[in-house]
Design goal:
With 114 residues, the protein is α+β, with helices and mostly antiparallel strands. It has two helices and five strands, in the order αβββαββ. Bound molecules: adenosine monophosphate (AMP).
Length: 114
């Protein structure tokens, strides 16, 4: 099967500003940032979307959020607060079919999202 865009980033076939890497996931800056700090946390395993999660994925998904917060602390946005987003499918406006957590911060965000 063809690699996803994010697998290619993990394999260094496409450049990215990588902020964190471990056996299970990596975090890198979003190429089109929507806030002063905007990075993605992506599992190495190419689960396409939230709808594809199955029993057994709990630990991995929890790990993504632990890493999201650790990187947010390093990026200096944890005190002011930040937002995590996982877009899913067409209505969720997911564009890359490899599950990922967006982390956005560094400015006042508004609610509700569009
Ligand atoms: P989503 O629309 O939730 O699937 O989010 C995909 C995100 O990936 C978007 O915010 C894009 O800006 C981001 N993106 C696309 N290509 C790259 C890339 N080469 N490096 C970093 N981020 C990317």
């Amino acid at each position: 099967m063809d690699k996803t865009l994010f697998e290619k980033i993990a394999d260094r076939e496409i450049p990215a500003d990588i902020l964190h890497e471990d056996d299970h996931c990596l975090a890198f800056r979003d190429i089109n940032p929507q806030a002063p700090v905007h990075f993605l946390v992506v599992p190495r395993r190419p689960i396409p979307a939230l709808v594809d999660l199955t029993v057994g994925d709990e630990e991995l998904m929890g790990h993504l959020f632990v890493v999201a917060n650790a990187v947010a602390v390093k990026e200096g946005i944890s005190e002011g607060g930040y937002r995590t987003v996982i877009n899913c499918g067409k209505h969720g406006q997911q564009t890359v079919p490899h599950i990922h957590v967006h982390v956005l911060g560094g400015r006042q965000l508004s609610w509700p999202p569009g």
